[in-house]
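Deliverable D4.2, example record:
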Amino acid sequence: MDPADFQLLHLALHEMRTPLTSVQLNAQLIERSVARLGLENEGRLAENIVSAARKLDELTQELADMARLCSGKTTLDLRVHDLARLLPEILSRQVRTSDNHRVRTMVPDRPLPVTADARRLERIVGNLIRVGLRLDVLGTGIDLRVNAGEAEVEISVAAPASTSDTAPVVPSGDELGLGFLLARILVECHGGKLEVQREPAREVVFRFSLPRG
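Output generated by the structure prediction step:
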């Protein structure tokens, strides 16, 4: 990223954070006030505002982190982690309780040392799971798969593809959304490539690999 572009993006995100913080704090005050008054409908509306503000706040932080990475202002914290132990922790934080039954995991039952930035890896996996769940319009579930090779460990998220015969090979950029783009950038920062394929089993599969630790 050009230094001028980084400065512009950094300034824009900073300007966004100030009103966003105000919205979030005031919505929380409203949420508590209507709860004391027993106003259930208004409480749900306030809760929705708080939830949306939190998501926007997380997004601005994520974009700022991407800008710093792309501009060389920060680097990955690469360490050796046991993926078999790390993934359950990631899932516990990134998957809502109501969606637990929709995420099936297929992970070898043995240590899987990989070299990665754990915090950024969590973003990659979390973003791909959310993209997969969004594509799973029928609620049949998605698969998180891990395949271990001699030099690399492959991680993939498989979601049901459209049943239409005229469907494109892969979803469009609008369908994949910003979460996919950010995941792809983070994978590339790790020196890998995030691939998207339409499988014969009517699945859309997102896959990338990490070097063995």
